[in-house]
Amino acid sequence: MADPIENEAAATYERFVAQRDEIDAGTRMWSSLADFFCTDAVYCDPGWGRIEGREAIREFFERSMAGLTGHGWSSPENWTMVDGHRLISQWDQILGHREDGSPWVVPGLSILYYVGDGQFCYSHDMLNMTHIGQVMRAMEWRPPPEFNAPPRDPNRDVSLPAAWAHLAENPNP
Predict the structure, then answer these.
(1) How far is CA 104 from the centre of its chain?
(2) What is the pLDDT of residues 103-115, one digit of tens each?
(3) In sequence order, what are the beta bridge partners of 170?
């Protein structure tokens, strides 16, 4: 039988994914995902770098996804594994569809740390940005006016927040 914290982490992540699917469908705002993070959480994005704090994460979601949602982009979940407070997710970044209907796809991974009460303190998304660039060139993608480019020199620190570093050493406190 799974550890109770693992069950709770998995259930929270299922709600997170369901909400992300609603966002992809256009019925929710990206900023609503920030509610799944504690106030001092860290989010590490492959393009935008390290984002610290729930409200900064909220702003990041809206800013980074402007011009992408509603243009055929989505992130369907493939599988999830939970080990204590750690959760690993494999998903696909769908960048739209070819003329034959097949998707332009780049696989991605996320590592999250669950702290309880339906919240994560850390998320690190891994996506091959070179692959993204190749696909975007092949599909001749042009950014819409509302698109925001990531910063040129993002913070690449992927360490856990200081208050939660103990989770890396003791995943089942």
Answers:
(1) 18
(2) 999 999 999 999 9
(3) none
- Top-tier CATH class for 4-142: alpha beta
Coil, strand or helix at 9? helix
pTM beyond cutoff 0.90: yes
pLDDT digits (tens, 9 = 90+) for 145-169: 999 999 999 999 999 998 787 776 6
Tally of CA atoms within 13 A in the half-sphere of 69 that contains its CB: 18
Q: How far is CA 135 from CA 12, 96, 125, 147, 148, in A?
A: 32, 10, 19, 17, 18
H helix or E strand, kind and range, residue 49: strand 49-52
CA-wise closest residue to 147 among 34, 50, 71 = 71
